[in-house]
Amino acid sequence: MLVTVMQVLDVTVTNVALPHIQGALSAAVDEVSWVLTSYLAANAIILPATGWLAGALGRKRLFLACTVLFTLASMLCGLAPNIETLLVARMLQGLGGGPLMPLSQAIMWEIFPLRQRGTAMAAWGVGIMMAPIFGPMLG
After folding, report:
1. Which of 37, 98, 118, 138 sits 20 to 30 Å CA-CA off 8?
2. pLDDT of 2 higher than 80
3. How many domains does the chain have?
4. Residue 107 · residue 124 · CB < 8 Å
C-alpha cells in the first residue's frame, strides 16, 4: 500500500516546497495558498463518497483507478507551467488520493486472515506515521 504512504507524504512535501513553487510559477501568496487548499478540499469532497463508489465499482477497481489518477495528477503537478494548471492537477490529486486510505484499510482487512490483520495494519500504520517525518526532508 505504498501509494497510501505517498498520499500522506505529498501533503508534507508540498508544505515545504510552497516558497519554491511560488517563485518558480511567479505566484502571489494567496494563489500559492490554494496549492494546499485545492488538494484538501477535493480530498474532503470525495472521501464521504468512497464507500458508495467502492460498492458500485468494487474496492480493488476503485483503488486502482484512484492510484492511476493520483499518479498522473502528481506527474502533472511536476510539469505544471503555471499556477492554474498546478491547481487543477492538485484537485485531481486530491480526488485520487482521498479514497486511498480507507480503501487500503478495507482491502487489507479483506485479504489478510484474522491472525495476520494486526501485523498488516501495524506495518501499514508505521508507513503512514513515517511519511510526515520524511516529507519535510524530501520537500
Report:
1. 118
2. no
3. 1
4. no
The three cell numbers locating residue 6 = 505517498
Give the length of the chain: 139
Neighbours of 135 (CB within 10 A): 19
Q: Which three cell numbers stand for residue 74?
A: 502528481
CB-based contact 50:105 (threshold 8 Å): no
Task: Dihedral sign for Cα 82, 83, 87, 88, please.
Answer: negative
Amino acid 125: pLDDT: 87
CATH number, residue 32 = 1.20.1250.20
Separation of alpha carbons 139 and 127, rounded Å: 17
Determine contact, residues 139/16, Cβ cutoff 8 Å: yes
> Letter for the amino acid at 106?
A
Domain, as residue range, for 19:
2-138
Neighbouring residues of 57: CB distance < 8 A, sequence distance ≥ 6: 65
